[in-house]
């Protein structure tokens, strides 16, 4: 596979460097356009049902451009995932670091740990643009066993393990096993909230307002906090 030239920052002093920079910029723009079109299609349909021809036609590029930048359809699919996943997990890490910096005791309050975990995903799901599409893309990755990311999605848990030490510090009365179970249930609540919020509107016959991000986040964090604060399960 031919790799895309790495972007280098340079000041152009003559025509040749300017031409190189212009070419790199066009290549980067083409790559981004392909990813954005692919993200939109993969968010709505399975990996197998989306063809490279559809992607290249909508992105107005030649098939060779996909091969050049990504090597294959699978490589493109993974690039779609990595671009946004890194941003999402970076947001989580930043919120956690900011909460830790505010703490005078070295122990981040439980509510702030949970907000760092849950807020980015909830906020992105309310975004009508690319971030919202990525949440739909992630949901499809979880259920599409033919997806190249199906196994990777379940193995890529390092960004979640980052939260375990914070939870153990603030909840020393809970065993490691119990914390992992409660984290699992919290993630399940997050998943259901971002995938099936419309159902709540129908179940409640409009009583529950799902139109605003902040109240939804407040409720899910409060729910998760209560779950983590529940008494530890007695050992048998």
Description:
The protein is mainly alpha-helical. It has a single domain (15-229), classed as Tetracycline Repressor, domain 2. The protein has eleven helices and no strands. The radius of gyration is 21 Å and the shape is globular. 22% of the residues are buried. Residues 1-20 have low confidence and may be disordered.
Helix content: over 70%
Q: CATH superfamily name?
A: Tetracycline Repressor, domain 2
Strand residue percentage:
under 5%
CATH class: Mainly Alpha
* Spatial extent as radius of gyration: 21 Å
Number of strands: 0
Structural class: mainly alpha
Tell me the CATH topology.
Tetracycline Repressor, domain 2
Could you say what the CATH architecture is? Answer: Orthogonal Bundle
Biggest sheet: strands, sense, closure?
A: none
Q: Measure the end-to-end span.
A: 56 Å
InterPro entries: DNA-bd_HTH_TetR-type_CS (IPR023772), Homeodomain-like_sf (IPR009057), HTH-type_TetR-like_transc_reg (IPR050109), HTH_TetR (IPR001647), PsrA_TetR_C (IPR041586), Tet_transcr_reg_TetR-rel_C_sf (IPR036271)
Organism: Stappia taiwanensis
DNA-binding region: 51-70
Domain HTH tetR-type: 28-88
């Amino acid at each position: 596979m031919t790799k895309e030239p790495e972007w280098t920052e340079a000041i152009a002093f003559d025509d040749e460097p300017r031409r190189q920079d212009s070419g790199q910029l066009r290549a980067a723009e083409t790559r981004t356009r392909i990813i954005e079109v692919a993200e939109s299609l993969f968010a709505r349909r399975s990996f197998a049902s989306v063809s490279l021809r559809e992607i290249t036609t909508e992105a107005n590029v030649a098939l060779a451009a996909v091969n050049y930048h990504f090597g294959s359809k699978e490589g493109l699919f993974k690039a779609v995932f990595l671009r946004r996943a890194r941003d999402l997990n970076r947001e989580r890490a930043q919120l956690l670091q900011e909460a830790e910096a505010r703490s005078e005791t070295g122990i981040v309050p439980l509510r702030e740990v949970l907000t760092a975990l849950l807020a980015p995903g909830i906020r992105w799901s309310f975004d009508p643009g690319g971030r919202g599409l990525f949440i739909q893309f992630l949901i499809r990755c979880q259920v599409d066993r033919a997806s190249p990311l199906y196994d990777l999605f379940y193995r890529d848990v390092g960004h979640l393990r980052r939260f375990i030490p914070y939870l153990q510090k603030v909840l020393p009365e809970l065993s490691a096993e119990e914390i992992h179970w409660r984290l699992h249930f919290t993630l399940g609540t997050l998943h259901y909230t971002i995938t099936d919020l419309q159902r709540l509107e129908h179940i409640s016959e409009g009583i529950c307002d799902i139109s605003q991000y902040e109240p939804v986040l407040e409720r899910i964090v409060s729910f998760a906090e209560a779950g983590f604060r529940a008494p530890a399960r007695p050992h048998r």
